[in-house]
Amino acid sequence: MQELLSYSAVELGRLLRRGELSVREATEAALQVIDGGQSGNNAFITVTAEQALAQAERAQQRLLAGEGVGPLTGVPAAIKDNICTLGVKTTCASKIMGDFLPPYQATVMEKLEQAGAVSLGKLNMDEFAMGSTTETSFYGPTRNPWDLNRVPGGSSGGAAAAVANRECWYALGSDTGGSIRQPASYCGVTGMKPTYGAVSRYGLIAYASSLDQIGSLARTAEDCAAILDVIMGKDRRDGTSLDAPCGGLLAGLNPDLTGKTVGIPVDCFEDGLDPDVRARVLSVADVLKGRGAKVEEFRLPVMQYVVPTYYIIAAAEASSNLSRFDGVKYGWRAQGYEDLTDLYCKTRTEGFGSEVKRRILLGTFVLSSGYYDAFYRKALQVKHVIKSAFDDAFTKYDLILMPVAPTTAPKLGESLSDPLKMYLSDIYTVSVNLAGLPGLSMPCGFDRRGMPVGAQLIGPALGEQAILNAAYAYQQDTDYHKQAPAAAEGGETA
Ligand code: GLN
Fold first, then answer.
1. Span from the CA of 182 to the centroid of ligand 1 (angstroms)
2. Which residue's CA is minimally distant from atom 5 of ligand 1?
3. Closest ligand 1 atom to Cα of 211
4. In this predicted model, what pLDDT tens digit does every residue of 252-299 receive, in sequence order?
5. How far apart are CA 194 and CA 428, in angstroms?
6. Residue 25, CB half-sphere, CA atoms under 13 Å: how many?
7. Number of other residues whose CB lies within 10 A of the CB of residue 83
8. Which residues are catalytic?
9. Phi-psi region of 465 (alpha: psi -120 to 50; beta: other; left: phi over 0)
10. Atom of ligand 1 nearest to the CA of 131
C-alpha cells in the first residue's frame, strides 16, 4: 500500500494501463490516508469519496476498452478550493462563500474529466488565495507534513501538503504571486506555474485577474509535463487565453542541456537569503552544468521594485474582483440587517477574514481618485519595466535560476503578526507573475532543520518545455524529489 502511494503520477498511470492494479485500488489507498486522518495536516476542505469511486469505475472502463486513454487516466488528483467544481462545494476557504455549489465546471475540470482523471476532493488554501502560509483559511491552517508545527506555505498549501504527504498523486493549484511555487518549495514537491494565458482561468475564482494562473503540483517534472499537457490550451471562455501550441510536453522531455545557458541573477542571492537556501539553490547550477548547460551570473536590479509593484496591482484587482461578494447574489448572508447598505456592510464585515479586508482596503486606496496616479498607474508602469528586464535577460539566457523563497517553512503563527514581513518573503516569486512568465519550483535539498528547500527555474513566455527539460535533467541526477516526510512513510513526523 505504502509503495503504491510512493509512485509518481506518470508511474501510477503506467501501472494502471498495464493492468497491474486497478483504479479503485489506487483511489481507495489515497482515500484511506485522507480519511484515516493519518496525516492530521488538514489538507482537504472537502473529500468527495463517492464521486471519486464513481470516476474510478469510469476510468477503469476506459482502460479496459483502451479508448480515450492518456498518461493520467485513472490517476487520483485533488483540486485547490478556488477552482469551480460542478455541484461540489467550492469555498475559496472563506466564510463568505458559504456552501457555494458552482453551477458549472471550470475549464480545467472539464479537461481533467476528458483525460479520465479521478478527483478526491477540494484542498485548503489561504482565504481567496491571499497569503503565503495557508493560515488565513476559514477552515483552519494546513500543517506542513515535514514538521506539523510549521506552515506548508501558501496559498496552495493544502495542495502541496497533500502531494508531499502522499494523499494524492498530483494537485491543481493557482499562482498569482507564487502560490504554487512557494508551497511546493516548503513541502518538497515540484510545482509549475505556466505562462499567463496558457491555461484557461474560466472557473477559477478571481483574486488578481491579470496575474492569476492555474498550474500543477506533483512529485516530478515529468508529472508536471503530463498535467500541463492536459490542462493547457486555448479557451474561448477566457479572453486572455493564448492561442499557443499545446500538448507534447511529456513526449518532448529531453535531459540533454547542451547549448543551453542558465542565468543566475546575483541580486537574488544577497542579503536576506538564508545561507542554507543559498547553498542548496546554487548547487543546482552544478548539476545542470553536468548535463551540458552553461551557467553565468548577471544583474537584475529591478528585483528591488517587485514586491511593492505586485502588492499594489494585486490589491487593486482584488478590491474590484471581491466587490461581487455582497450577500445578495451568492454565498453567505449576514442576519439582522436594516437596509441594503447595512446588509452589504454586515455580510462583508462578518464574511471576510482580516487579511482579505486588508487587501480590499489597500486596493481601494490605491485606486481612489487622489492616489490612482501616484500608486496604481505608477505600478503598471513599473510592471512594464520589470517585464522588459526579464525579456532582456531572455535574449541572453534560456533559463533563469533563483531561490523560491528567502527561507524554508516558518513556524505556524510566526507570519501573521507581521504582514509586511510576509509580503516581503514573496520577493522571488511575484516578478514571474508580473512578467507573465512560466516558473517551476523543485526540491533541491534540505536545510539544517531537515526542512525542504526549493529552487526556481524561470523561462521566457511559452518556454515551458525548456524549464521542464532542465528540471527533468536535474531529477535524473538527484533524488530529493523522491524523499517523503516520515508521516507519509508510515512513521512519526518530527
Ligand atoms: N503570497 C502572495 C499573496 O498573498 C501570493 C498569493 C498567490 O499567489 N495567490 O498575494
1. 9
2. 177
3. 8
4. 999 999 999 999 999 999 989 999 999 999 999 999 999 999 999 999
5. 16
6. 13
7. 25
8. 80, 155, 179
9. alpha
10. 4
